[in-house]
Amino acid sequence: MELNICHLYPDILNLYGDRGNIITMKRRLESRGISVNVDECSIGQPLDVDKYDIFFIGGGQDFEQEVLLRDLASGKGKDICTAVEEEKVFLAICGGYQMLGQYYKTWDGVQLDFIGAINVHTIGAKERMIGNYMYRTTPESSGSIVVGFENHSGKTYLGEDVAPLGMMIKGYGNNGEDQTEGARYNNVFATYSHGSLLPKNPVLCDFILQTALDRRYGKTEPLVPLNDTLELNAHNYMEQRLSK
Ligand code: GLN
Hints:
Layout: E1 2-8, H1 20-30, E2 35-41, E3 54-57, H2 62-67, H3 69-85, E4 89-93, H4 95-100, E5 103-105, E6 111-113, E7 120-137, E8 145-158, E9 166-170, E10 180-181, E11 183-185, E12 188-191, H5 197-200, H6 202-217, H7 229-243
Bound molecules: glutamine (GLN).
Glutamine binds at residues 15, 59-62, 65, 94-95, 98, 151-154.
């Protein structure tokens, strides 16, 4: 088996080492004998939607998000919407999550019209939501506890057909108001969790990988367990600290 991963806008949306999520997916697949190809696609480069099983989009600040608008409007936004409707797997972080939504109105009143691949919108607040945080994903997204780090001024609100990725245990999540965190629509997994999302949360990582394998090959055998001692040590340390 093999999976093809597309890293969208790696040179623009690249906060907090979000690309570590790609390294983690690749390593965890290769450890099970599954081949992985990773391509990058940025501004001005055509996107071959059919080729890929997983799309990854990292986080970026308001400025970087604005830089993308023209490229998204020139056709890539539509291609991404097609991929979402075809139930390709997406992992989108923070600014990349907001970009999949309808629009982002920044705290100083600038409206960035995004692609509407998922029915969410984001409104900037003056106060940023920053810190280590923790949530439990819904049963449809593995039902596991995720530890992470968030840093955003945007408050995201979910539309009717979009489920949260999880419910907050500690921290702000989507908006600091309704206890939701992230979004699930088709096979889109979107979250505010930066940097070490998948390295520290192997259960969620394998759930995403299994989703991509099942989509491509039909129902596949469960992924064989790996030795996750280090990953779970890091996870449990954070979980304990955040439980206090
Ligand atoms: N610019 C967005 C916000 O502040 C996203 C930031 C990020 O990706 N960390 O809400």
